[in-house]
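Here is a typical protein record:
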Amino acid sequence: MVFRGSCIALAYLLAVSCAEAARSSASNPELRADAIMPIRTHSLFAPYVDSTLQNNYWDYGGDAIIDTNRYVMLTQDRRNETGWLWSRLPIEANDFEITSEFVMKGKSATTGGDGFAMWLTTTRAQPGPVFGSMNRWNGLGIIFDTFPNQPHRGFFPRISVVENDGTKTYNTDSDGEKQDLAQCAMQLRHTPAETRLRFTYVKDVYMELAIQNQEWNQWNKCFRIPPVNLPGPPYLGFSASTGEVTDTHSIVSVWTNKIVYNSRTPADLDKEREQAFADDKSSHWWAIHQKKEARRAHEHGLISYMLIRFFISLAWLIKWLVILALVAVGSFVGYEVYKRKVQSAYKNRRMMA
């Protein structure tokens, strides 16, 4: 089985080399770039650890155990277990792609629990109630939920992507209902093919999750949406938990690539966005962007209009105040002149008398 892990690693490196020459990802031919470069610090293959049971680039903890021939098992098929696997270093690349093979299985063919999550966050290795990791994380969580804690419309297992700024509490009792940016339902347990996830993040263009679960190298898109702004170089992590219902949750391999673009103009980015969302008018990035720009322009126009009206009104008020002041001054001066004339005439009459 060690030989299998070595073969996977070798195949990965060969695929990356070919991808660089073709300027596209081996598992994602739609992705076009100037180069695809492996990030060794965020890739993981058997035997996972050295002779001291350590890895230079990854930490594991909780109930996680290492089977050097097969996988990193985050939880066993037991109740109330939590385990995690985290990179020691953050991902420094602006654009990247993460592919991971994982296994979720248990004694029951129909019911599993609770699930696992992949994290891209500013903190690392903080155990907690959200599939073995902390609540109120800062960054992005992609959650593979296999057990509904309350009735929902739709199918489970459910995959959802949830952004958090470190202040929001993820509601585990409602399975994060109405807290996700996007979601999909796919079979993840006891699948006919090895289950893999592929997360692609192209800054300012799109982020996408695709799943392989039916046939080798046949990817089913879960979502493609405008990318969130990651709060900083994120750590990459995986965590899992079980409750009253149980599964084994295992990470078989992780390989991360840096997507390299030598230079792109704003016009290039606009074109990439339009191409990325050409088949999905409902979430067309450019349409959303245009609406935001139109709204912003309308708001700016409204503010400008209100300022112009304010200054016109102010000028009108000042004009009438000046006119009233002049009238008042004229009236006062006229009154004083009239008053003096009356007094002078009165004095003259008395002197003549």
